Amino acid sequence: RDHRQKYGTMHPLVGSTLHNLGMTMMYAGKYNQSLAYFQHAVDIRSTTLGPEHPETNASLTKIGMLQASNGDFHNALATFSQILRGRRRAHGYNHVEAAKALNNVACVDYECGGLVSAQKSLEEAIDILEKNAFSSPLDKASIDSSLIQVKNNMAFLLYKRGRFQESKQYYEQVAELQEKWNYPVEDFATTQGNIRFVEEDLDRSSPKQSSFASTSQKSKSNSTADVVTTTADQGSSITPISDRTAPVDVNTRLEEAFEFIAKNAALMKLTGCA
Fold first, then answer.
1. Do residues 58 and 52 lie in contact, with contact meaning Cβ atoms separated by under 8 Å?
2. In whole angstroms, what is the distance from residue 95 CA to residue 172 CA?
3. Within 13 Å and on the Cβ side, how many CA atoms surround 7?
4. Apex CA 85: angle with CA 84 and CA 90, to 5°?
5. Closest CA to 125 of 159, 90, 89, 87
6. What are phi and psi of 209, to 5 degrees?
7. How far apart, in whole angstroms, are the C-alpha atoms of residue 96 and residue 108?
8. Model confidence over 144-190: pLDDT tens digits?
9. Is 174 within 8 Å of 155 (Cβ atoms)?
10. Segments of the chain scoring below 50 in pLDDT
11. 266 and 252 in contact (C-beta within 8 Å)?
């Protein structure tokens, strides 16, 4: 209120206050109020700072995160697609921030049933990150951290598509990067467990029955599997994995600020924005 009285309603400080109120409501579990604050923050920041400004992007990212965590995947897809377009205009198509946005688009696209388009987004994100890792060695630790996340998502997605050999290869790449950067033992162990799990499906595959068919049948036979094929088939509800019905994704949080809703987070991990 003090900022509004001193600077007027359309001022960056008012936008920052509204963003912080959105964060507070988010932590309190009041998601609808949080969403309203973030939207108001986006309106002010877009006007006073510009639609591609990092602070505008931060508020818009939180909106997409909330939409995704609430199961509103179609609106989340529209939000993250908007962020992707903005980051491409601001930074170009081959920037790390564009790769992070592509990962988010892939995550919600997956939940909407767009497995093929989600894979294309992840492939583009990986290509961008690998090129930046080569050209920007000083940022390699940060870029490799993003690569671990995106490649983990790719491995998980390929498993869901029944492409077990490719899934295994990506999980192996994740394990190499985790070992390189001394990731926690439990993370590395989870990835190794995923590799063994995918190998079991590879062994069970036969020429008479496609891998995709066997995956679909196994998923349908166990209602606890977290599988999204098409929204018409199974909708977009998220059910916790149990009894090792699929590889476990070590990245089960949307971002640090979303720890409190981890139980509702999709297995594929969204990347946050500072």
1. no
2. 25
3. 14
4. 95
5. 87
6. -135, 125
7. 19
8. 999 999 999 999 999 999 999 999 999 999 999 999 999 999 999 99
9. yes
10. 208-245, 249-267, 273-274
11. no
The predicted pLDDT at position 8 comes to 64
For residue 137, what pLDDT is reported? 76
CA distance 70 to 38: 15
Please provide the distance, in angstroms rounded to a whole number, between the alpha carbons at the two ends of the chain: 25
Report phi then psi at 206, rounded to 5.
-135, 155
pLDDT for the residue 134: 87
188 and 179 Cβ atoms separated by less than 8 Å: yes
Asked if residue 127 lies in contact with residue 109, where contact means CB atoms within 8 angstroms, the answer is no
What is d(CA 60, CA 57) in angstroms, rounded to the nearest whole number? 5
How many other β-carbons are positioned within 10 Å of the β-carbon of residue 181? 12
Name the pTM for this structure.
0.75
- Rounded CA gap, 93 and 85, in Å? 9
Rounded Cα distance between 54 and 100, Å, is 14
Query: In terms of residues, how long is the chain?
Result: 274
pLDDT in tens, 112-144: 999 999 999 999 999 999 999 988 877 899 999
* 73 and 108 Cβ atoms separated by less than 8 Å: yes
